[in-house]
Design a protein that fits this description.
The chain has 122 residues and is mainly alpha-helical. The chain has 6 helices and 2 strands, in the order H-H-H-H-H-H-E-E.
Length: 122
Amino acid sequence: MVHRLGEERSRKLAAASVDRPAVCDSELSAATAVCIRTSLALLAILEEKKEVVKEEILRAGRPFELKVKLLLSIRGVTPLLALAFLSEVGDIRRFRSVRKLHSYLGVVPTVRSSGRRVISLG
């Protein structure tokens, strides 16, 4: 997943390379400038496609709107995260306790040891 800062930075770089191609050309070799422009163009296309996929996911999640709204009341939860959670967990009532749910999600630290071997999970 690309961090928001990365997305904004890539947009600025793409805009800068289009608006000021001479800066890119003068500071880099011609081959490097072509590679950078091509990569930025591909990145812009991928970001557009990502937005299309995001909209499709949100559209497909409309039947779960009430559950999504409930999950959105948790600080830091986004609509996509809520839908991912719902698609992964399904019916939350299948877990006997919150600890069982946490364990299923892998957020409960676990240490398994045998002799000299120690494995930390979660």
